[in-house]
């Protein structure tokens, strides 16, 4: 499999694994120095906002403690479209831009709605064992997510 295809499959696999609420599987796709962020721009305050920011250990802690949160249990489905893959052979990394649509299906009737949209800005580490997520910034256009949803995109 060529490098570009392996990177694209990694990005898509990360969404499918999170759809299955397989947190260990997600962390297995991440490099030891992984960084995760959810951010958005607020036109009201004319600034970027960071809603969530963790390293790999912080993500594991978040996942381990999700069962303690009073949260919305409605499943979400991520639709990821990889747009660009820029490989830096010398640095052994790739910068990937993908669009993201997140759909939420309610538990009390099965109605599905568009929940959030944005872009994923990923940095992928390219190693001998294949690509791993090094950093992900989920850059949301949607800023009204309601309350009670704690699972990262």
Essential attributes:
3 helices, 49% strand, 153 residues, six-stranded mixed beta sheet, 6 strands, alpha+beta, Nuclear Transport Factor 2, Chain: A
Task: Give a description of the structure.
- The protein has 153 residues and is an alpha+beta fold.
- The chain has one domain (3-140): Roll (Nuclear Transport Factor 2, Chain: A), CATH 3.10.450.
- The chain has three helices and six strands.
- Strands 2-1-6-5-4-3 form a six-stranded mixed sheet.
- A hairpin with a 6-residue loop joins strand 4 (93-105) and strand 5 (112-127).
- The mean pLDDT is 92.
- Please state the structural category: alpha+beta
What is the CATH architecture annotation? Roll
Task: Return the CATH class.
Answer: Alpha Beta
Dominant shape: globular
Topology pattern, helix = H, strand = E = HHEEHEEEE
Supply the number of helical segments: 3
Helix residue percentage: 10-25%
* Tally of structural domains: 1
Specify the biggest β-sheet.
Answer: 6 strands, mixed
CATH domain fold name: Nuclear Transport Factor 2, Chain: A
Q: Please give the radius of gyration in angstroms.
A: 16 Å
Low-confidence stretches: none
